[in-house]
Amino acid sequence: MERIQDAKILLVDDNAELLELLLKILAGEGYNRLFPAKNCREARELFENEQPDFMILDVNLPDGDGFHLFMEFRAKEDVPALFLSARDEDQDRLFGLGLGADDYITKPFLTQELLLRVSLILKRTYRTVLNPVQTAGIKIGNAQVDFRSATIKKDGAESALTAKELAILKKLADNRGNIVTFDMLCEAVWGDGYYGYENTLMVHMRHLREKIEDNPSKPEYILTVRGLGYRLAKEVAE
Question: Is this structure's pTM higher than 0.90?
Answer without folding.
Answer: no
